[in-house]
Amino acid sequence: MAFLSEKELIKAFRDDEIAQHYFEVLRHLISKKSIFAQQVGLQEVAAYLGETFANAGAEVTIDETYEAPFVIAKFKSPKPDAKTIIFYNHYDTVPADDDQVWTNDPFTLTVRKGYMYGRGVDDDKGHITARLTAVRKYLRQIGDLPVNITFIMEGAEESASTDLEKYLAKYRDRLLPADLLIWEQGTKNILGQLEVTGGNKGIITFDLSVSSAEVDIHSKFGAVIESASWYLLNAISSMRAADGRILIDGIYDQVIQPNERELELVDKYALENSDSLRRLYDLRLPSLKKDRKAFLRTYFFEPALSIEGLSSGYQGQGVKTILPATAKAKMEMRLVPGLSPRYVFEKINSHLRRHGFEKVKVTYTLGEESYRSDMSHPAILNVIQLAERFYRPGVSVLPTAAGTGPMHMVYEALKVPMLAFGLGNPNSRDHGGDENVSLADYYTHIELIKELIKTYE
């Protein structure tokens, strides 16, 4: 297809009857809060999606066995030997509370200067309606589908996909066989290339806590009494070197190293580097990795131990001379293939005991394993080659993203080749204020999915 300008894409979108119909569906979806963390609106939004897909001609199943209903919508091809594409999406969002700045109400879809704004327009409700639009356009303009298309939509992705594993086990036989699974979302990079990624890092989050006395103690005893705060800080410091390398025995022994193709893809397409991050975030501290190859290998293919938050002692106005009796830290480790959350949790506990920090209580909070796709799989290569026709700057193919999601869980259940791409932009502000998507990118995604369906004819 000829590359269209942003103005031409927006005009095509506004003139497209089907796209406009499902844009109104998106408007309703945005207005309906569906937040697992707050237990808000999950059943209502699942029911609305079920009704929407049923009206579009899909065979719909809504399973409400667990806290977040699981929605399956199947569009069947009349071809007896038709392959199957699965779209994985989620209808839950993170909150949009008073701690974030929004220009307009986050649960009212607004359009300004070629962009749509609202909680979930990118992560992930906008992807649901864009992909449904593509299916409906194919059916209306061309006819019967040449491929079976199945949407699976969960409602707890933003809370570690609670119970998704159980739903997948229950419906595995109804979802398979499948040729390809397209992940929830993706973005363009700063060069305008569509990022096509094949995996993500896993994660384990855990709390550390220390209680050193019944009450806070006068700090005149600081020379002879250990405080909870110092004890915890020393325990945390024992787990990571100054250069960021994790010092917990057994962590790197289990890491599955990237192959040559994965290293080549990252070297060719990855844009992140220490200088760009310094400018983006106005960094005041030195980078842990400056050499580009070392930076990329560490960023994409190695685990990382981070402190999410620390709390101990007096934080009020003025001075309070105490030795705090309690200290707490929220911690996380980003995982790569070979590391399971439970394995890492046991190694953390063993490390602290072995180094004399047995007074630190370690509490497991959540965990997800990591996954990397085979980016040379024919079904994935088909998408990559097709996408190059829709983005003038081309595509950026990465074997994994540095973020986290339930890709490993889904792959273990279905064993289907997976990749992620979507309609986001470098400043879509997922999870932040003024989450947004360009109307041109939204419509391009619709057309790309429609053309992907055509490749199965």
UniProtKB/TrEMBL annotation:
Protein keywords: Hydrolase, Metal-binding, Protease
- Record keyword Metal-binding present: yes
Is Hydrolase given among the entry's keywords? yes
Q: Which GO terms describe its molecular function?
A: metal ion binding; peptidase activity; succinyl-diaminopimelate desuccinylase activity
Q: Which organism is it from?
A: Streptococcus ferus
Q: What is its EC number?
A: 3.5.1.18
Protein name stated in the entry: Peptidase, AtmC, ArgE/DapE/Acy1 family protein
**Which Gene3D superfamilies does the record associate with it?**
3.30.70.360, Zn peptidases
Domain of life of the native organism: Bacteria
Q: A Pfam family in this protein?
A: Peptidase_M20
Q: Where is the Peptidase M20 dimerisation domain?
A: 199-356
Entries under PANTHER family matching the protein: BETA-ALA-HIS DIPEPTIDASE (PTHR43270), DI- AND TRIPEPTIDASE DUG2-RELATED (PTHR43270:SF8)
Question: Which processes are annotated in GO (biological process)?
Answer: lysine biosynthetic process via diaminopimelate; proteolysis
- The main enzyme category here is hydrolase
Fetch the SUPFAM superfamilies from UniProt: Zn-dependent exopeptidases (SSF53187)
Cellular component (GO) terms are: cytosol
